Amino acid sequence: MKKIISILLFACAGALAACDFLDVVPEGQATQEDIFKTSKEARKYLNTLYTYAPNIAAYRYMPDFCAGDDIITATNGQTRYFPYKSMLYNEENASQTYYGLWDATTSSPSGRTNYDMYKGIRYCYIMIDNIDAVPGISPSVADEFKGEAYFLIAYYHWVLLTHYGPVILVRGQLDMGLPEEQVYVARSPFDECVTFIAETYDRAADLLHGYPTRPDADLGRATSVAAKAMKARLLLYAASPLCNGNTEFYARFRNNDGTPLMSQTYNPEKWKWALDACQEAITLAEDNGHRLYESPNATAAATAAERGEINYHDCFVEPLWNTTEYLWAMGDQTGIGHLQRYGGARLKLPYSTDGFCINIVPTFECVEMYYTHNGLPWDRDPETMHIDPYAYNAEKETVNLHVYKEPRFYASVGYDRGKYAINGEEFILKCRAGEMQGSVLDASKEYQSCTGYILKKWIHRQSAFNYDTKSWTYRKYAYPYIRLAELYLSYAEADFEYNGSLSDASLNYLNLVRRRSGLPDFKDSWALAGGIPTGDELRKVLHRERSIELLMEGMRYHDLRRWKEAGEAMSRRPKAWNLDGRTAADFYRVSTMKESGVRTFESPKTYWMAIPLSEININYNLVQNPGY
């Protein structure tokens, strides 16, 4: 009987390794015959394939959530406990990585959770190659399972691509008897990787054509809509400056045989491919009932701004699973529970590690990014451009920066003297030194805001801690891996980059996103500032439109990189209020945020992580990323 462990090849290099038991049979070692004996066992095996998907909401497991410039953890805490800091402080190298994505065996000081993408890919091919032979399985169910496996193959290659650049493509199971030159293969050029992943998403969508959505019992499983949406994200990434004719970073980036790994010729048609993919995904999503979420709780709101604030906040924490807007989401509650526990506002003094522990907080730069209530940047809005945003507003007991903001700000950010709801009650945050949510004036205490702000976006009013029983009540909800609003904004970006202006379709998509959040239409907002910008200024505006909508969702990390803006944005020392200030006059002084390391972003090095040296030592055809 052929054992599973004897047919899998470890990671990209093809080195043999024993694979973990998949828990699909009660006792003994799982075999192919056991796993594919019945459709029930095959389904259990299919479920294990999803476990290789990184938990983006868990800030300790992936860099995506905290290694951008929109959200960060408290000053204290070594990189081993907060691995994303390795990306901020230039601590990643080929010998030591804090993330197990390419090679799960590479040593790491973080005690990390590994997500071995290549192992997951190999397991997916086992499903594809064997599912048709399961006794009694219908062709439609077999195709469904294969469609999910192809979706995950594409997604796992995508995860590798966005964290490491060009990768080794796995197009099927490898035969143990293959000669060495067919096992130790080189990295594929970036554009070849993109084509393979896009085609694999299309193949998944075709097999899942009968599953554009999922019933409640199967939420989180792949759909044809998810496949087309993720393909659109892929092609937008591929069209972007980091990857489209980037001669600054990758002119000498080649395999050992001289094959260029990144095209040095800018191709504007890549934006057209992204544009078409966005439209295809949007049409399929809308035809199957997807729309931007609007909360039932907003119907009684008196103004568009109040409705917008409720709509946006409830989108993330109100439905158990937001099937309206989320095109693909995951329900692992580990990261979601941590977001609430370490994002929620402190409710008792003196300082204690019981209850909500302020740790994960919005950055000062995140707060500055939000528009005014007129839907414009502060310095372009005629109502605010002559007002000092950092000046104290005695009437509101806070600074002007917090007074004139758009609804998404109030839905997402807790600020000094702002409203906040948790533990079943609403109250006013007090974030100055010595106050309930402020500094405890002891730098050794870990759980304090390092910016002066408190996370609100992922906090539900009923997220609760019982101080008598020391028990938690976490709000259960799914975390979005891609949602419809992103597709609308991606379409507008691709449209502008390809055509040089915004079509009526793009304006409509921008307006859908804005209206849901209580903002004026795009054209109406910019009419106040002399009209819609053009050229580079419009590009910056579209980047900001996208960033604001997707702040604190793990997207800013990748967007800054694909736009080739990370070098500038991530090299700046972040700002904070004077956290030790007890009075408004002292607290509201813009300071430099204290960090546990020295912020260093090296281009092109820090745009992607290093290929583990252990893999390069095994596979002589592997070349390292530039800068390492």
TrEMBL record:
Pfam families named among the record's database cross-references: SusD-like_3, SusD_RagB
Listed name of the protein: RagB/SusD family nutrient uptake outer membrane protein
Keywords for the protein's UniProt record, in alphabetical order: Cell outer membrane, Membrane, Signal
Signal peptide: 1-17
Compartment(s) where it occurs, according to its Swiss-Prot or TrEMBL record: Cell outer membrane
Family: Belongs to the SusD family.
SUPFAM superfamilies, per database record: TPR-like
Species this protein is from: Alistipes shahii
PROSITE patterns per record: PROKAR_LIPOPROTEIN
